């Protein structure tokens, strides 16, 4: 089993606020595929990194998680590209962790 985490930004690349519909659509897609989703949306996390140009960048993000029996990299790569367009980003951070559920 895998715990798959996505970091979704609250603002697009141009600084504009992401429409709530983007989050609702993403939530519904994940529920339809994985039969459940958890979004940590009450307090956004702050991500900070150095861009390829050497500039410090920052995003406010929410974490979304699903549990999956298998991890299918090709599916997640395609879904990540869809999300990048939806959330006005170059890419969306997605990670998969091995998980055990008692």
Instruction: State the low-pLDDT regions, or none.
Output: none
CATH class: Alpha Beta
Q: How much strand?
A: 35-45%
User: How helix-rich are the residues, as a percent range?
Assistant: 25-40%
- Please, how many domains? 1
Q: Widest sheet: strand order?
A: 2-3-1-4
Secondary structure tally: strands? 4
Largest sheet: 4 strands, antiparallel
Q: Label the overall shape.
A: globular
Count helical runs: 2
Q: What Rg is obtained from the alpha carbons, in whole angstroms?
A: 14 Å
Question: Architecture, according to CATH?
Answer: 2-Layer Sandwich
CATH topology: Alpha-Beta Plaits
Mean pLDDT: 94
Structural category is alpha+beta
> What series of H and E elements makes up the topology?
EHEEHE
Q: Distance N terminus to C terminus?
A: 11 Å
